[in-house]
Design goal:
4 strands, 22% strand, 4-stranded antiparallel sheet, binds zinc ion, N-terminal domain of TfIIb, 8% helix, mainly beta, globular
């Protein structure tokens, strides 16, 4: 698992304000606590790229994500 101190500074890349925190539900992924998108963790490195994001069930476009819509 990632160092909790490191995890604390990571933010969801969909959030323009960079406020949405991430949690680690298991070894292989991170989850945004706001929009529920998952990001892969490969060899211990979180891949926080919009292109690598796994959208939550029922969500067909990143534009529907709560994080995406946080922009002022
Ligand atoms: Zn998010």
């Amino acid at each position: 698992m990632l160092d909790p101190e490191f995890l604390k500074i990571l933010r969801c890349p969909f959030d323009p304000k960079r406020e949405a925190p991430l949690s680690q539900p298991d070894e292989t992924r991170l989850a945004c606590e706001c929009c529920k998108v998952h990001f892969p963790v490969r060899d211990g490195f979180p891949i926080l790229l919009v292109d690598e994001a796994v959208l939550p069930e029922g969500c067909t476009s990143a534009e529907q994500l709560p994080c995406h819509n946080r922009s002022a």
